[in-house]
């Protein structure tokens, strides 16, 4: 416990003993023998408006700032661990206990909080086990494995006192340009639903509330994060709703998070159709709906559908939002203003409070608010969890190419070159804690071979070096007769730099992104101009390039000469002037900028002090590869939240690296690190490709196990890999086209299809049986087939069942996944695989948006991917 927290707790102990003040008789809401509904109503009747409001407000925070008044309680807090040592779990559990004790013992009603955290593939706190990213778990196609992983994460989470996780992500990765594909379970609603059920069910059974997000369809046109969507009800109901509905109705999720984007013109956080008609009425959801962080106010600054945050709060609660999630304590004021002014009906407020209190009672927080810190220390990073992280990493690895059976490698190789920065970095992916004893791919390979056999070259890395923001130390301007750091900045309330500036200030650098607001008070967010002026001081090494990145228009003057003129509003980009600036020189600098539509970005850049030695690094890697028996090139991508990709090629100079190493004639295996698809113009030049995703803290060992044949690469793609970006969006389950799939310059087929993955062995399929072959609309058929390992090593196969409706009243997908099973078979071993097909798999929305199973013939297809069908049969549905 921190000293300030201790002092705060002691003060509160002296001031308040609310439980004792009420006498010895327990109020009904504290009596666990009573029905939950009775307890909730009793507590609700006792609550003041302030106490109700704070049960509907959640933030990151603690009790350390005495100016923050938590005397009315709060829904919950995101409480970070202060300790980054192995003792972090115990320390955080003790800290959460201390904070929980204040709310339980020192507020008027003693309502406990729900401590919450992110836990996409491991609790995002020091000391917690980091498992493979969600997309890697999906690539396992193993729901039992995902349930065990989720159970382990839930055990670590609950042991610390964290009782809600803001996970899983159940949005579908229908466009792989989206930066958050790594957080998803892929593109398919059936696969994502199965994975989501496994994850949610394990957490909820462990007494931790899950929060499927982001409701709904958090990626729009161009693969852009939180972009507006205008999908019709059929598409939402048949494709985007199923993972959420399944998590709620079948797995018991007790919370849902809304999306940032708008849906059919209404912000998702204020969408009555989504939150009330679908979620609460049609699906019978009894838990609580929370906003994404700061999303409620997005109606005012993003969607422009509300004039004030208070009005946005009013309409969000009326639409079905229950809890506002904000990023700081101070942001409560406009939301409390809506409550205080009576803008939100009492019945609406009470309904939301009831949902929160019902879950808090269901969690047992009133009876058991504290945890045992030693239990947290025991379970976080437990050896069994570490072993499970290794198993999960192995199962998710996908073998995409294995020319001439170059893999697995022999452990008798005389020299192995491991090349690429990602080989040594061990990146864990988005929403990750630091992990425990993280193993890099380089570490994993070194553990397999003698030390002198493995040699490493970092290569050029993922990022192109060459430009950086001009730093404050290089910028000077005059202020009251003296020189100060930074530039004088004049902000005008017009686009022509006319008249007196509205704002004059000092900007230490020019690196701005005014996406949601204006540069300052008194200026419209979409109508202004700026002039920065001062001196440029050139550091050692000099500079050869000076320019501007961002939205045009801008003009850049150096020593009163116009060196860049991009004053016409058109687009955004990087404009550079070739200059010759020797070290130590001082030059007059002026940058002018104007904006007419908002969403502005402007950055002053140069190449001073930057030396990109990428060719030198590639040459070094080539020499190493030429002297080796095999080269393992580890290449990674850049992505993440609000980091969508326009291009899917490997970033930086990694593609040049692969081509150069492949030109040595040394066999090359490319290991891809990342959470989404990659285009591969270099594919035919390399012998092998492994996609290992972000494999978690034990990932390096798992990758080495697969490289050297100690584990079979049984993972399969949960997303489609395109040949080029021009094919996107590209998914396997599209509807039939009006003509064809192809382009004049490219096929419409993928580079690697959904469900694809190779093995170190071979599997034969036989014996398809569909019994009975004819069923009624409400009946069920059993589909059987046999799968045999006809190769020479133990291997995993993912048997995939697809269905196609041959004649329907509305256009249906060309193919739909309706079942899958992962099986492990020894050489010569054969196993029967069984699926069930019934109304759940065959139904769709007819013209009037009613769910039906229409009479007719359904093609039943079983195979190793969406393109590799091995068995084909038919099922007839009679009228």
Strand-helix topology:
Blueprint: H1 3-15, H2 18-21, H3 36-46, H4 49-54, E1 57-60, E2 76-78, H5 88-106, E3 116-117, H6 134-139, H7 143-159, E4 164-165, H8 189-205, E5 219-220, E6 224-225, H9 233-240, H10 242-249, E7 255-257, E8 262-263, E9 266-267, H11 272-282, E10 288-290, H12 298-301, H13 309-319, E11 324-325, H14 333-340, H15 346-362, H16 373-379, H17 383-396, E12 398-402, E13 416-419, H18 421-425, H19 441-448, E14 454-457, E15 468-469, E16 475-479, E17 482-485, E18 487-492, E19 503-507, E20 511-514, E21 528-537, E22 543-551, E23 554-558, E24 561-566, E25 572-581, E26 586-595, E27 600-606, H20 614-626, E28 630-636, H21 654-662, E29 668-673, E30 688-691, H22 699-707, E31 763-771, E32 774-775, E33 781-789, E34 795-805, E35 816-825, E36 830-837, H23 839-842, E37 844-845, E38 851-852, E39 856-863, E40 869-877
Parallel strand pairs: 1-2, 1-11, 3-4, 7-10, 13-14, 13-28, 28-29, 29-30, 32-40
Antiparallel strand pairs: 5-6, 8-9, 12-30, 15-27, 16-17, 16-21, 18-19, 18-21, 20-27, 21-26, 22-25, 22-27, 23-24, 23-26, 31-33, 33-36, 34-35, 34-39, 37-38, 39-40
């Amino acid at each position: 416990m921190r000293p300030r927290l201790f002092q705060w707790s002691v003060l509160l102990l002296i001031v308040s003993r609310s439980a004792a003040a009420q006498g010895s008789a327990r109020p009904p809401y504290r009596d666990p023998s009573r029905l939950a509904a009775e307890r909730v109503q009793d507590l609700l009747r006792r609550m003041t408006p302030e106490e109700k409001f704070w049960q509907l407000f959640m933030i990151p925070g603690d009790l350390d700032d005495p100016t923050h008044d938590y005397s009315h309680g709060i829904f919950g807090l995101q409480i970070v661990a202060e300790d980054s040592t192995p003792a972090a779990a115990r320390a955080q559990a003790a800290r959460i206990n201390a904070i929980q004790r204040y709310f339980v013992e020192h507020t008027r009603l003693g309502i406990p909080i729900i401590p919450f955290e992110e836990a996409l593939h491991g609790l995002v706190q020091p000391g917690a086990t980091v498992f493979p990213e969600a997309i890697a778990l999906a690539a396992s196609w193993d729901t039992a494995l995902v349930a065990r992983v989720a159970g382990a994460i839930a055990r670590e989470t609950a042991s610390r006192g964290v009782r809600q996780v803001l996970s899983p992500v159940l949005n579908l990765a229908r466009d792989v340009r989206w930066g958050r594909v790594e957080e998803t379970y892929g593109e398919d609603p059936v696969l994502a639903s199965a994975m989501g059920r496994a994850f949610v069910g394990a957490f909820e059974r462990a007494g931790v509330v899950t929060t499927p997000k982001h409701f709904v369809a958090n990626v729009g046109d161009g693969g852009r994060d939180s972009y507006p969507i205008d999908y019709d009800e059929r598409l939402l109901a048949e494709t985007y709703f199923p993972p959420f509905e399944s998590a709620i109705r079948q797995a018991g999720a007790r919370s849902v998070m809304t999306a940032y984007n708008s849906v059919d013109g209404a912000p998702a956080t204020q969408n009555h159709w989504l939150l009330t008609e679908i979620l609460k009425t049609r699906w019978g959801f009894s838990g609580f709906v929370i906003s994404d962080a700061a999303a409620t106010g997005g109606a005012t600054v993003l969607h422009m559908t509300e004039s004030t945050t208070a009005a946005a709060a009013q309409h969000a609660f009326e639409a079905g939002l229950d809890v506002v999630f904000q990023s700081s304590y101070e942001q409560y004021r406009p939301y409390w203003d809506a409550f205080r002014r009576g803008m939100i009906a009492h019945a609406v407020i009470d309904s939301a409070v009831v949902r929160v209190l019902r879950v808090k009672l269901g969690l047992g927080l009133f009876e058991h608010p504290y945890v045992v810190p030693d239990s947290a220390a025991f379970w976080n990073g437990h050896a069994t969890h570490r072993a499970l992280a290794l198993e999960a990493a192995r199962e998710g690895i996908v073998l995409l190419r294995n020319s001439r059976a170059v893999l697995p490698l022999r452990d008798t190789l005389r020299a192995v070159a491991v090349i690429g920065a990602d080989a040594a970095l061990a990146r864990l992916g988005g929403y990750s804690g630091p992990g425990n004893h993280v193993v890099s791919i380089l570490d994993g390979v070194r553990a397999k071979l003698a030390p002198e056999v493995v040699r490493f070259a970092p290569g050029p890395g993922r990022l192109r070096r060459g430009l950086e923001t001009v730093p404050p130390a290089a910028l000077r301007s005059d202020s009251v007769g003296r020189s100060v750091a930074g530039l004088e900045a004049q902000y005008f309330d017009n686009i022509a730099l006319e008249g007196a500036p509205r704002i004059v200030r000092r900007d230490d650098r020019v690196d701005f992104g005014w996406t949601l607001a204006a540069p300052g008070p008194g200026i419209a967010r979409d109508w202004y101009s700026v002039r920065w002026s001062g001196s440029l001081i050139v550091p050692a090494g000099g500079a050869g390039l000076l320019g501007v990145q961002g939205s045009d228009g801008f003009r850049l003057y150096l020593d009163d000469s116009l060196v860049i003129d991009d004053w016409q509003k058109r687009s955004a980009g990087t404009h550079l002037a070739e200059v010759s600036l020797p070290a130590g020189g001082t030059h007059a600098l002026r940058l002018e900028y104007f904006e007419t539509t908002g969403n502005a970005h402007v950055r002053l850049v140069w190449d001073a002090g930057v030396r990109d030695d990428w060719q030198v690094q590639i040459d070094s890697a080539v020499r190493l590869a030429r002297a080796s028996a095999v080269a393992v090139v580890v290449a990674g991508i850049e992505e993440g939240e609000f980091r969508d990709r326009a291009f899917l090629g490997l970033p930086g100079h990694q593609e040049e690296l692969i081509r150069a190493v492949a030109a040595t004639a040394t066999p090359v295996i490319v290991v891809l690190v990342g959470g989404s698809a990659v285009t591969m113009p270099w594919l035919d030049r390399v012998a092998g490709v492994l996609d290992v995703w972000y494999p978690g803290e034990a990932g390096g060992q798992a990758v080495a196990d697969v490289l050297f044949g100690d584990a079979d690469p049984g993972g399969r793609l949960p997303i489609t890999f395109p040949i080029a970006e021009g094919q996107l969006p590209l998914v396997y389950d599209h509807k039939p086209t009006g003509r064809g799939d192809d382009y004049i310059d490219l096929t419409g087929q993928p580079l690697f299809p959904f469900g694809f993955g190779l093995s170190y062995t071979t599997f034969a399929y036989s014996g398809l049986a569909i019994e009975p072959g004819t069923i009624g609309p409400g009946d069920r058929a059993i589909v059987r087939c046999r799968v045999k390992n006809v190769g020479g090593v133990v291997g995993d196969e993912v048997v995939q069942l697809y269905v196609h409706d041959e004649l329907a009243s509305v256009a249906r997908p060309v193919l739909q996944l309706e079942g899958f099973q992962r099986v492990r078979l020894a050489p010569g071993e054969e196993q029967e695989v069984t699926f069930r097909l019934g109304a759940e798999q065959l139904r769709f929305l007819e013209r009037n948006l009613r769910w039906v199973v229409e009479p007719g013939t359904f093609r039943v297809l079983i195979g190793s991917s969406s393109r590799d069908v091995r068995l084909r049969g038919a099922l007839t549905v009679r009228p």
